[in-house]
Design brief:
About 45% of the residues lie in helices and about 20% in strands. It is α/β, with parallel strands linked by helices. Strands 3, 4, 5, 6, 7, 8, 9, 10 and 11 form a 9-stranded mixed β-sheet that branches. Strand 3, helix 6 and strand 4 form a beta-alpha-beta unit.
Length: about 325
Amino acid sequence: MSSNNARPGRTSRPPGSDDLAAASLRPAHLLALQAFDVAVRLGSFKEAAGLLNVGASAVSHRIRNLEAHLGVALFHRSHRAVRPTRAGEKLAAATGRAFALLARAESALEAAGQRRLRLKVLPQFASAWLIPRLSSFLTRHSELDLAIETSNRNVDFDTETFDAGISFGPDKPDGVVAHRLMEVRTVPVGAPALARRLKLRTAADLGQAALIHVTTFPAAWPLWFKHAGAPAPHATRAISVDSFVAALQAAERGAGVALALEPFIGESERHGTIRRLLPVGHVTGSYWLVHPPGAQRNRALQIFKKWLLAELAKSD
């Protein structure tokens, strides 16, 4: 009587067989095999070093270590060129097939990745600008998939796996490719009924209403009052929410006065749900399309970027 305790989808071959071949090769061996294969194809350690962006001595060292590990000479060396020994020819046939298979697999995965774009977008930009226009992009580029995540925090490519993001800040972000999308101003807004009741005329009059604060941008109101040339009212009642989107929604429902981001209040003004209470606007920063330098090759990102910048140009 026998039993098979192997997990579904896995073979019962013992460790050390072909399914664990990758684990048997140390990183140094893989680098040595890569150097060997390139040197065979080019017939030169120096040219191989240039292609691999390392020194010629590094290529020579890697191949000598490989020869020591295998116990055979892999090259006939001359002053100007190298050619494989019989053992080198046999190994070159194997490495050629293996690296070609890896390259094809990587190309297939990369091609699949080119059809999907993962974006991290700040909520206000997503809800007030991007999402209302997405149908035109998806209609024009039905072959692409978009995965959009909204967050009150800018994307961090060191710890997150997004292809690109739409971030906010006063200056061009460092360490990434960045395109300025639009400048943003904060303006005080409230529901029409609140505006009629309070009859606000100056910044000091805002002390009559509850001020709606955004917890992720605590300096927004102090900076606005400083720009308006007035001290922030001391006795103001306060409401705190976690985003400018929520602040605008609270203001529309008469909860108090919010700082809204211009140019994102046009629709609310047209529908009559919000009114600018004072003409003073404070420039707080800009929205930026950001992505790592290595993402330049991403076809989906290039298509999205071209569409995004064209849409922004139309709305200027």
